[in-house]
Amino acid sequence: MFADFLKKLTGPNTAPLPDEDARLALCALLVRLARADGEYATVEMAQIDRVLARRYALSPFEAAALRTEAEGVEAEAPDTVRFTRAIKDAVPHDDRLAVLEAMWSVVLADGERDMLEDSNMRMIANLLGINDRDSALARQKAEGAA
């Protein structure tokens, strides 16, 4: 199953991913961000589940199942660029701002700002076509919601 999804991400076809695959790509990217500092805390997993439940109207069980699937995908995926490309192709720009805010909420879930997480967020924002100012605003919104 992971192999088929990864083929879609890495293959030469540039067609946008179906909604379910774009959702899996977003979740895998959230997992990658949470793991960036070398610690994948329970509070980060819980925040990912809340983001997924809210964004996709999932039950807590469905959100946790999606996260578990995404953890496997993230562990096997070659790079972050392909996840961001899938999201950029599937999500309109205004909605990508909400995606970035959700990403910041995961990064900030453990109460610490880590240089690796910040670096990943700068790269991801750029790959999603979001400028530094809008990323900072998304971070501030995520901080205010915490």
TrEMBL record:
Alphabetized SUPFAM superfamilies for the sequence: TerB-like (SSF158682)
Residue intervals of the Co-chaperone DjlA N-terminal domain: 23-140
CDD domains: terB_like_2
Protein's name in the database: TerB family tellurite resistance protein
Native organism taxonomy: Bacteria, Pseudomonadati, Pseudomonadota, Alphaproteobacteria, Rhodobacterales
